[in-house]
Amino acid sequence: MRSYLDFEKPVAELEAKVEELRALGENRDAVSITEDVSRLEVKAADALKDLYSKLTPWQKTLVARHPQRPHFVDYCAGLITEFTPLAGDRKFAEDEAIVAGFGRFRGQPVCVMGQEKGHNTETRIRHNFGMARPEGYRKAVRLMEMADRFGLPVLSFVDTAGAYPGIEAEERGQAEAIARSTEMQLGLGVPNVSIIIGEGGSGGAIAIATANKVLMMEHAIYSVISPEGAASILWRDAARAQDAATNMKITAQDLLRLGVIDGIVTEPVGGAHRDPEAAIQAAGNAIEEALHDLSNMGPAEIRDHRADKFLNIGRKL
Known about the structure:
Helices cover 48% and strands 16% of the residues. It is globular. The N and C termini lie far apart (44 Å). The protein is built from 14 helices and 8 strands. It has helices at residues 9-25, 34-52, 57-64, 72-79, 121-126, 134-150, 167-171, 174-187, 202-206, 227-234, 241-247, 252-258, 276-294, 299-311; strands at residues 80-86, 98-105, 108-115, 154-160, 192-201, 213-217, 221-223, 263-265. Strands 1, 2, 3, 4, 5, 6, 7 and 8 form an 8-stranded mixed β-sheet that branches. It is an alpha/beta fold.
């Protein structure tokens, strides 16, 4: 069943009526209601389009967190063939919050990694809701080193509320692991493309998003802290998350204007969860274009391009 967000209630009511009429139409004794169904479908589609054309930053945050939104494993299955996952950081343990390995993207060998939140209770616990521990970032570094050695582009899919903040993660060097992963990405001599597919939260996101090209899905968010966290710090009231989201410039549209990201991937009307396959293919097309733009650069040019990109953030406002 489709899950609706609170602000989608008007659309939910219209689509519920459509389903009721369809059910009545299946009864042979019922009068023909095809015209009524068509009229309501058009009305529901128009309402959805209008609603999503003017989402507030807080509403985009809710869409980015939608439980039915496609996650990394969905993008990987839809875009990567011959995917071979690798496990462990060779130092402490395996962290399933970050899934990483090698495969082919539209025929091209690549290193691919992403934060996986999970789709149900079992997988969410297994993947720790996409919040990586130090060993997850050290695993990412291990694979990026291999990719650099063999000349393979690196693709990363970002979807996390942030790195895991537990005491044991801090004891094992969470900040250092994030810094090492960021440093590794800055030094790669191969192209790397990152796409924020849901939430891009804090250092947990930037650790695998320091790329030549940073893309965002249309209704994704990207910020240094969650709106709830910002509200708790600024106003000591997490209930003011909506106010924080409005002022933090966390949407793809704001970040493109500020030069933080390089492109926005258009989602189906109603969000990626309405048509995951279309959203995944649109992301694939954007990634393919980004890789093509970087394909004629040598290692030194790749590094300079990446350095210039991040050094220029904030200089062209």
